[in-house]
Amino acid sequence: MQRYAVFGSPIAHSQSPRIHAAFARQTGVSMDYVAVEAGHGDFAAKLAASGVQGANVTLPLKEDAFALCAETSSRAQRSGAVNTLLRAGSGWHGDNTDGVGLVRDLTERHGLDLRQRRVLLLGAGGAARGVAPALLDAGIGELYVVNRTPARADALADAMGEPGRVHARGWDALPALGGFDLLVNATSASRGGTLPALPMGLAAPRSAAVDLSYGEAAVSFLAWARAAGCSHAVDGLGMLVEQAAESFLLWHGVRPETEAVYAALSGQGDALVTAD
Ligand code: ATR
Q1: How many Å lie between the centroid of ligand 1 and the Cα of residue 124?
Q2: To the nearest whole number, what is the mean pLDDT of the chain?
Q3: pTM to 2 decimals?
């Protein structure tokens, strides 16, 4: 039996084992996928001891995973972060499927056209870095990276290497930025604190808002988005399922269907049968 795992902290409530078990049943792949609690200090040792063929990596380990790879995909290099590990000889190949997962969720599940759109990215940490390259590749018109610590927004914008399309700002610039077609909350504020008040003028009636978190952590930003008049307010569950499908494809060479798994996780479909 092939072994796979997701590493991160906290990891107890990760949906990834359920998602991959459902994909494996659907595609007839025989594998075991477990969640492993690991932090900065013990990730490398736990990964080495795990005997896995591949792994997902989540908070707070995506930069650690990038650093330990012998080779990385170009999209992982642009993000500086790895969420998917594949064995490459005695080392690891690193990839990042978060950005393509977000774009697939927005365009295919929610029917949004991202081309030429004016996009606001709140946050400049690992989550923001993971999705910025894919948003640019999807053909958006402009990307404003706004962060509480302006130097991190500058660093993210510089790393994208497209000064004509990508602009960095501090939080205090928000009231002057006008309206956006797409607003992406990539801050970790809702997981540990509160997001500063956002000007209503950031949203317009046809704006879409997405929070990269899901469940309770996404509630306050999405409530703000609805109150501000956004026509779409979506959490990160669809992105989670789509990035998992991309990882599954990289490991097993087959792309699973995501809709039934998404419906089950969002409480709209049949419950997922747990893996035995
Ligand atoms: P992640 O991997 O989730 O992106 P991270 O790299 O620690 O985690 O980045 C967290 C992001 O959320 C950063 O952009 C952070 O802003 P700073 O760079 O200024 O720290 C942002 N963030 C966290 N708490 C916040 C808050 N209360 N208000 C605004 N931004 C916040």
Answers
A1: 7
A2: 94
A3: 0.94
CATH number of the structural domain spanning residue 52: 3.40.50.10860
Q: What is the DSSP string of 253-270?
A: S-PPP-HHHHHHHTTSSP
Using CA of residue 116, residue 241, residue 1, residue 46, what is the dihedral sign?
Answer: positive
The residue nearest atom 25 of ligand 1, judged by CA position, is 189
Q: Flag whether 130 is in a domain.
A: yes
Structural domain contains residue 274:
no
Find the 154 Cα to ligand 1 centroid distance in Å.
14
pLDDT at 252: 97
Q: What is the pLDDT of residue 269?
A: 65
State whether 78 and 144 are in the same domain: no
Reading the block at residue 194, the tokens are 């509160």
51 lines ligand 1 (CB under 6 A): no
Instruction: Provide the pLDDT for residue 271.
Output: 61
